[in-house]
Design goal:
By secondary structure, this protein is mostly beta strands. Helix content is about 5%, strand content about 50%.
């Protein structure tokens, strides 16, 4: 088998080299943001093939000043019916100067989520604007049909909160060509929500579910679930909460700080999606996030769960319930998910079953430890730890036109958190060190030969140091330092040989100190600084690096391409330097 693998690998890379001319990022503005206080991020745009795209405007300069949805009608681009090599959503938002909270922003089509993020908070002297992009190539099946969509940004506008949000969004369709072949996309996309146009579902407790009962085609060959779980209300700062028994002593929110999305099919555990600790632009201290917000704050990335071992079961002609819950949810999480289904074009009926599922019986119950103590004077010191690691294997087979395909997903998911407290009459300090992790290996084999393997390694590090100091006159300061990270490494393999690998690393570090008088009135802030570094490298020579730094909420440094060949960022058009899911679509030729 090895000679065939080597030959196949060679053909793949010849094909990739042939398509090199199409690899590039979208053009960026020529002017430097140094000296600006407007939103500035290091995130890459979505790379696209060369050539002019077909454009469909979803909505243009809509005003968001209430809680009504903003509906739009969608039709595929005329004269550009596909197949497409790439589909990219681009959206531009702004908010007028004034006072306004950060708001959740979503865009939907036919019940399917196209975009999920939050907005930048304005100030009395700054009307921020920002741009976001999402690779929607895998959702091409949805975009081939006309449908109804809507944008949702619930926003209170009155005499106090007077910031008005505006937004526009469009879809860019890049036609397939000899240099940019058609993408290998899902044959169908199914939303899990009940709203036919689209909306999130509220998960108030661990028992609540986002679910949909689906009757799927009888020739499902592969299946993936893209999951978003966004913290809201009491759960907005879930990552700082402590178990109920320590809440009063630590002067913190209860409910604990373990959160994890659980996926099930017909009530059987089917996978896990780690929850990212997004911090919004009004979170903790708004000056931490001006002009650079936290990791993915303006543009969330979904986590893709491989459900392929269930392909044979999903094809049996019966109705199946696919559901998402959030373990630890404590009022509340806003969730949405989309099921991507790939069909066997040469089979009308696929049969199969689950052969092994060790996730069954492994409840998501973390281990809690504490060294928290209160001395005679009332001073509180010590740590609270929360830990959970689970390893599981899910195996199933499907009888397809290629023969019996065995699929296996093996994963280890982890959550490790330590919160340190030092509380006395003159100070309150809480230090949170948290790491959410997931390592997975998906394999498909026919006749004992592994035909496809995908490995993914993700890490979500979070470190918060919140230090409150009280003066004798009753005034106080609140100093915060933060570190957020998003690390994603993935690998496509064949017969144990790496065909393609990529690494994404996004880090944001911020600090600021707020000042308050004895009546808890805000009097100013000092020491504001932030830095973001975003890097991407892949085995094809793709390289991206961008660095942003600011002091006192003004951009002081903006570098692009440092350390990349020729000092320039470059990536193939079909890669995912932004960290978006890629195992469902894969690399052309694989």
């Amino acid at each position: 088998m090895l000679p065939k693998a080597f030959a196949y690998r060679g053909l793949v890379f010849i094909g990739l080299s042939f398509m090199f001319a199409g690899g590039a990022f979208a053009a960026s503005a020529a002017s430097s943001p140094v000296g600006s206080s407007n939103v500035t991020v290091a995130d890459p745009s979505v790379p696209r093939p060369s050539g002019k795209p077909c454009v469909v405007q979803l909505f243009s300069n809509d005003t968001f000043d209430d809680y009504a949805t903003r509906p739009f009608s969608y039709a595929p681009p005329a004269g550009c019916h596909g197949p497409w090599a790439k589909v990219v959503l681009t959206a531009d938002f702004s908010v007028t100067a004034g006072t306004q909270y950060d708001r959740t922003a979503t865009i939907w089509l036919g019940g399917v989520n196209l975009y999920f993020g939050t907005t930048q908070e304005p100030s009395t002297t700054l009307a921020p604007s920002w741009h976001v992009e999402r690779d929607l190539t895998d959702y091409s099946a949805l975009l081939r049909q006309a449908g109804q969509g809507q944008a949702i940004i619930g926003n209170t506008v009155n005499s106090t909160y007077n910031g008005v949000i505006h937004g526009s969004a469009q879809l860019l369709f890049y036609p397939a060509s000899i240099f940019a072949p058609p993408a290998q996309v899902a044959d169908a996309v199914y939303p899990l929500g009940s709203d036919p146009v689209g909306s999130t579902v509220t998960l108030t407790t661990s028992a609540d579910q986002l679910s949909k009962t689906l009757s799927l085609p009888r020739n499902v060959e592969r299946a993936y679930l893209d999951v978003f779980a966004q913290s809201q209300f009491d759960d907005e700062f879930w990552y700082t909460c402590v178990p109920n028994q320590y809440a009063a002593e630590a002067e913190e929110c209860g409910g604990g700080n373990f959160r994890e999305a659980e996926i099930s099919i017909d009530g059987q555990p089917a996978g896990v999606a780690p929850v990212y600790p997004w911090i919004y632009t009004g979170g903790i201290d708004p000056f931490l996030w001006e002009p650079t917000p936290g990791v993915q704050t303006l543009n969330f990335m979904p986590y893709r769960v491989d459900l392929t071992p269930f392909a044979g079961v999903l094809s049996n002609g019966a109705s199946h319930q696919v559901a998402v819950s959030v373990a630890g949810a404590n009022n509340y999480f806003s969730a949405t998910a989309s099921l991507l289904v790939y069909l066997d074009p040469h089979a009308k009926q696929i049969s199969g079953q689950i052969e092994r599922n060790t996730l069954v019986g492994q409840a998501p119950l973390p281990t809690i430890g504490s060294t928290l103590t209160t001395d005679a004077s009332g001073d509180v010191t010590g740590n609270i730890s929360t830990d959970l690691t689970r390893h599981f294997v899910i195996e199933g087979y499907a009888d397809t036109s290629h023969g019996r395909v065995h699929s296996q997903v093996e994963a280890t998911v982890g959550f490790a958190d330590t919160q340190g407290f030092a509380i006395n009459a003159s100070s309150y300090e809480q230090v949170t060190s948290q790491l959410t992790s997931a390592d997975s290996d998906s394999q498909s084999s026919v006749g004992g030969f592994v035909t496809n393997e995908y490995r993914e390694h993700v890490r979500y590090p979070l470190h918060l140091d919140v230090n409150e100091q009280f003066a004798a006159d009753g005034s106080f300061t609140l100093a915060t330092t933060t570190h957020q990270g998003y690390e994603k490494n993935d690998e496509h393999l064949l017969a144990g040989f790496t065909l393609y690998s990529a690494k994404v690393n996004n880090q944001v570090d911020s600090a600021d100190t707020l000042d308050f008088d004895a009546n808890e009135n805000f009097t100013g802030h000092s020491g504001a600084k932030s830095a973001q570094t975003f890097t991407f490298h892949d085995s094809l020579g793709g390289c991206y690096r961008s660095d942003v730094a600011s002091i006192n909420n003004v951009v002081t440094r903006y570098d692009r391409g440092a350390g990349c060949p020729g000092g320039s960022n470059h990536a193939f058009w079909f890669t995912h330097p932004d960290g978006s899911p890629d195992n469902g679509n894969g690399i052309p030729g694989l």
